[in-house]
Write a structure and sequence with these properties.
By secondary structure, this protein is α/β, with parallel strands linked by helices. The chain folds into two domains: 4-94 and 172-314, 3-Layer(aba) Sandwich (Rossmann fold), CATH 3.40.50.300; 105-171, no CATH class. It has eleven helices and twelve strands. The chain has helices at residues 55-62, 85-91, 102-105, 112-122, 128-141, 158-170, 188-205, 216-219, 240-245, 250-257, 296-300; strands at 4-19, 25-40, 44-48, 70-75, 78-79, 95-98, 176-180, 208-213, 225-230, 233-239, 306-309, 312-314. Strand 1 and strand 2 form a beta hairpin. Helix 4 packs parallel to helix 6 (158-170) and helix 5 (128-141) crosses helix 6 (158-170). The longest helix has 18 residues, at 188-205. Bound molecules: iron/sulfur cluster. The site of iron/sulfur cluster has 13 residues, from loops. GO terms for molecular function: ATP binding; ATP hydrolysis activity. It comes from Ureibacillus xyleni.
Length: 323
């Protein structure tokens, strides 16, 4: 087993919300609630869930773009919340992010050269000539050309813009890349190209990825392990083969049943969930209002994440019984 690069331990992010007719009462939206996982060097951990499940908030807390309400995040055994602003800026050299919408995340008034040079300037890497060489080198690494450096983001297609976003994340030679829905805004035909590029870069540059997506289909071929989140909680985490062969949590089963199968001779019944992610209660399992197997115990107690097979953990009171 590889070394642990990142250890996320019981992190929470609660956003205050005013409630009541006079908006005088304070309650909290539990965007992320007690989430723990590890990321091993060189692997891809996919994190999957519907919009509002807390996956992007988790990514942003690791980047410290958001401060956790509670819990700890250790990167190479160093607690990120203990770092000063200057130390955190240095740590960001090693942890970079690729965003969903490359157009929104690239400054439209800057040339590609300026966009790619910026992280090098921020981190004091190289002189002008070295920076120029590195910009050209990384444009080629992501499948573009050196002459693209003088162009502006609007002069590229969506797929090319995401290649620029990936090149920008790579400029500081990071160890961990958090890719937040990096292919969701792209055409299906382009998605495969960008995923293949990310996979090749991972092998060539020995990268570790956290790959955030809203469906299990997208992360299938890139992830070594997959975590499934529902309403702020990690409900299942497992090696990819184990999760795709036999998802144990009812929510993971429903998500997987919606993934199209390329073999037309194989029929899989789609599990249709009722309700939506706003269907929640204060106590018990967060999935109880949508779960076809919910019982009284599910209404009373929050299920803990328990390892039921090697590396395969699930948070469900009835695992084993509804199989
Ligand atoms: Fe369904 Fe109960 Fe399991 Fe929650 S704990 S997923 S409600 S069976």
């Amino acid at each position: 087993m590889s070394n642990v690069l990142l250890k996320v331990n019981k992190i929470k992010k609660y956003f205050p919300k005013k409630t009541g007719s006079l908006k005088k009462n304070m309650s909290y939206v539990k965007a992320v609630d007690d989430v723990s996982f590890e990321v091993f060097e060189g692997e891809t951990l996919g994190i999957v869930g519907e919009s509002g499940c807390g996956k992007s908030t988790t990514g942003r807390m690791i980047m410290r773009l958001l401060e956790p309400t509670d819990g700890s995040i250790l990167f190479e055994d160093v607690e990120l919340s203990s770092l000063s602003k200057t130390e955190m800026r240095k740590a960001r050299r090693d942890i970079q992010m690729v965003f969903q919408d490359p157009y929104a995340s690239l400054n439209p008034r800057h040339t590609v050269k300026k966009i790619l040079e910026e992280p090098l300037i921020v981190h004091g890497i190289g002189d002008k000539k070295e920076r120029q060489t590195r910009v050209e080198e990384y444009l080629e690494i992501v499948g573009l050309s050196a002459y693209h450096a003088q162009r502006y983001p609007h002069q590229f297609s969506g797929g090319q813009r995401q290649r620029i976003g990936i090149a920008r994340a790579l400029m500081t030679n990071p160890k961990l890349i958090i890719a937040d829905e990096p292919v969701s805004a792209l055409d299906v035909s382009i998605q495969a190209q960008v995923l293949n590029l990310m996979k090749r870069l991972q092998e060539d540059l020995k990268l570790t990825y956290i790959f955030i997506a809203h469906d299990l289909g997208v992360v299938r071929h890139i992830s070594d392990r997959v975590g499934v989140m529902y309403l702020g909680r990690l409900v299942e985490i497992a090696p990819s083969e184990s999760l795709y062969a036999e998802p144990l949590h009812p929510y993971s089963q429903a998500l997987l049943s919606a993934v199209p199968i390329p073999d037309p001779t194989y029929q899989r019944e789609q599990i249709m969930l009722t309700g939506d992610t706003s269907s929640s209660t204060e106590t018990g399992c967060t999935f109880q209002l949508r779960c076809p197997y919910a019982t009284t115990v599910c209404k009373m107690n929050v299920p803990e994440l328990v390892e039921v097979r090697p590396g395969h953990s699930v948070a469900c009171h009835l695992v084993g019984e509804q199989q």
